Amino acid sequence: MRQCVLTGKRASFGKNVSHAHNKTSKKQSTNIQKKRIYIPEKNKFVRIKVSAHAIRTIEKIGLLLFLKKKGLRLQDIT
Fold first, then answer.
1. Where would I find the H helices in the chain?
2. CA 48, CA 2: separation in Å to the nearest integer?
3. What is the full per-residue pLDDT of the chain (78 aa) written as tens digits?
4. Number of compact structural domains in the chain
5. Torsion angle (degrees, nearest 10) of CA 65, 69, 70, 73
6. CATH label of the domain that carries residue 63
7. Residue 27: inside a domain, yes or no?
8. 11-31 per-residue burial string, b: 16 or more CB within 10 A, e: under 16
9. Is 77 part of a structural domain of the chain?
10. Is the residue at 3 inside a domain?
11. Domain containing residue 25
């Protein structure tokens, strides 16, 4: 199952409901991307699978600060 290594987001499940109220199962996939992120403090690139929400946050505050807020280390995600 595809999962974001930073936020832990994964697919959710729900129901399609027709006009006649017939219910069928459906899977709602997350927007997971393979992203190559540059870390200026370490002077290197890291390739990770992250959600689109995490990508926007990383672009705002940086990867190392994002990891610190989540209580993770760089070794945990690579």
1. 52-61, 63-70, 74-77
2. 12
3. 688 989 999 999 999 999 999 999 999 999 999 999 998 888 999 999 999 999 999 999 999 999 999 998 888 887
4. 1
5. 40
6. 2.30.170.40
7. yes
8. eeeeeeeeeeeeeeeeeeebe
9. no
10. no
11. 12-72
